[in-house]
Amino acid sequence: MPKMYGHTLHELSLAAQSGDVWAMGHLGFCLLGEAALPSYWKEGEKWLRRSAQAGGKEAMGWLGYCLITGYKLQKNIKEGEWWLRKAAELGDVWAMDQLGTLLLSGHGLAKNFREGEYWLDRASVAGSITSMLKLGKHLLHVGNYREYRQKGEKWLREAAKLGSYEAMICLGNHLLKNTQNPKGKQEGAMWLLKVIEFEVKQYEFDLSQICAQLIMEFMTSKNDPTKLESLYRQIKKFSNVWTLREISRYISSGDLSRCNIKIIRKALYKAGEAGDIQAMRELGTRMLGGYEMMKSPIEGELWLQKAADLGDRLAMGILGVRFLKGEGLPKDKKEGVRWLGQAVRLLA
Questions:
Q1: Does the CA dihedral 176-179-183-187 come out positive or negative?
Q2: How far is the C-alpha of 336 from the C-alpha of 304, rounded, in Å?
Q3: Are residues 85 and 208 in the same domain?
Q4: CATH code at 6?
Q5: Which residues, other chains included, contact 96 with Cβ-Cβ below 8 Å and sequence gap of 6+?
Q6: By CB count within 10 A, which of 38, 102, 171, 273 is most buried?
Q7: Model confidence over 214-273: pLDDT tens digits?
Q8: What pTM was estimated for this model as a whole?
């Protein structure tokens, strides 16, 4: 369901009581949200209904969806369908997407491919990336006709251009496996390559976030439980399980003065030598980028190759990108293409 940002329940309540249709709907949604207690659900339904009856198309869509699926409200499929259709007909993109999805799946509503495709198409034309992805995948799955395949490819391509990595993977795999045209296969490989490049960029960015300053904060936190928990969560997002064990050991012993960069390096080496693929990849990437370690291109390449030889797609991607760009490794187009090709084949 849609999310609501930037307003407290108190602010929404005041605005809703003054007759603001938008606030009524969003107050109802909040009172039916994931964290809401059952005692609030009836009040949430009341505000959704008020907003919907006053013409709030978002509230119509949410109310309809809840009634059809039984999400925190008593199921009433007939009334729910009426509200969801009304919201979709008034141009609410989320309602179009949900109506199309329910009609295609047959969950809650009678299955109707033709009408489901119609509503997802309208939502896609209105700019919904989610609808483009759903419609594209559906048309490729059910369409034995050329027209279906072309339309499915078109919507997946649009979603991919707008940044949907799921669409890139789906379209790339489809073109590589089901297209005889060399240009089609080339396009398929290109989309999968974009996914690899994004994963590499995101991974290296994440690693760069764990810097000496973060470890220093650990050392100077003086065992403050709240601060330690916050810092540990930050490191846990990015780091290797062996590293976490080492940090946890020093936290539990209360001897944070010894928890420093050398300890992190030692933990990674220990894990890599024991055959941990994630540690090998992390060691190699840190050595090539200098993240908390002295730059060592030769040793960094060796660790990444070890991980890649064991089937790690991300390590292959890192090697490919760095060889192609000459970042941390000598520029070598042939090696770069070879490693990226292996990564793409695993993704496919």
A1: negative
A2: 13
A3: no
A4: 1.25.40.10
A5: 88, 119, 120, 122, 123, 126, 128, 131
A6: 171
A7: 555 555 555 565 655 565 565 555 455 545 555 545 544 545 444 555 666 777 787 788
A8: 0.74
